Amino acid sequence: MKSIPSLFAIAGALGLILVAQPADACQRKGHHRAGKAHHLIQMIVRSAELTPDQKRQLKAMRKQFKQERQGVDKSAFRAQRQAMKQKMAAAIESGDSAELEEVFALKSELQAKHQRMKLKKLSQVLSILTDEQRARVAQKMRRKHARRGKWGGGDAD
């Protein structure tokens, strides 16, 4: 009978370790490498109907973003993430809630850093749009949001 609660505790600990990984989308490979911001920027570019000059500016921005990503020390990030996983496992094993709070604060800090990077990229892309283009993008977003709410696939607020 004692093995069932310990089995649940181990399963919960493994689940927390997997959840504790920060979402640093800039360092992931493949289709989903940039997360929601990537899809938002794609939607903006498609619906804004960019001029040839704006397309050149966007291409230069993408090149700059790529260079910035290459300049990031990925090994330091990986080491920090690995340390966070180990700290999480130790905190779960010891049952130390203060240590768990510390790990989740670190996770939140890493996620906030990532959000700031996405916001910077998005604001730079929006800066090349005209008022008409921004209005067109906003209208498309409203329609998409309303359609999602109508079908029950999202929040219609």
Describe this structure as you would to a colleague.
With 157 residues, the chain is mainly α. The chain has one domain. 78% of the residues lie in helices and 0% in strands. It contains six helices and no strands. Helix 1 packs antiparallel against helix 4 and helix 2 packs parallel to helix 5. It is elongated.
Outline the fold blueprint.
Elements: H1 3-19, H2 35-48, H3 52-70, H4 74-94, H5 97-127, H6 131-151
Helix pairs in contact: 1-4, 2-5, 2-6, 4-5
* Gyration radius over CA: 21 Å
- Count the E strands: 0
Distance between the termini: 48 Å
List segments where confidence is low: pLDDT < 50 over at least 5 consecutive residues.
18-34
The amount of beta strand, in percent, is under 5%
Principal-axis shape equals: elongated
Number of domains: 1
Average residue-wise pLDDT:
75
Question: What does the main sheet amount to?
Answer: none
How helix-rich are the residues, as a percent range? over 70%
Name the structural class: mainly alpha
Order of helices and strands: HHHHHH
Structure annotation, total helices? 6
Keywords:
157 residues, mainly alpha
Summarize it.
With about 160 residues, the chain is mainly alpha-helical. The chain has helices spanning about 5-20, 35-50, 50-70, 75-95, 95-125, 130-150. The radius of gyration is 21 Å and the shape is elongated.
